[in-house]
User: What shape does this take?
Amino acid sequence: MNNSKTDPKPDNKHGRALTALLEQGVAAVGLGAACLVAPSFLEPSSVTASVAAVLRMAGWISIGVGAVLLGLRFSVQSKARMLSSLPRGFPIAPDPAPTLETKGLTQPDTRLQQ
Assistant: This one.
């Protein structure tokens, strides 16, 4: 269990995850681009035409997956920046409902409970 007292950099894991998303996204886009360019180097024939079609489809899918990974990475990063700009201890709700002591009452009103 990682605790903020024992782990000097608790955000290091999140930074590594963001870096991994960036690397995987760039790799997927690069692989997709390579699959789209590869059919231009094949000699024209009936077999290579079907291989080229499969490579194009795989290339577009790979580019799509890479775009999703990169979008996810930048979305999470912007959300983390937005949350880190908030002050610590930011109040989520207004003051709690006043208690009987703060209203000056010492006992609850039991007249309606009879």
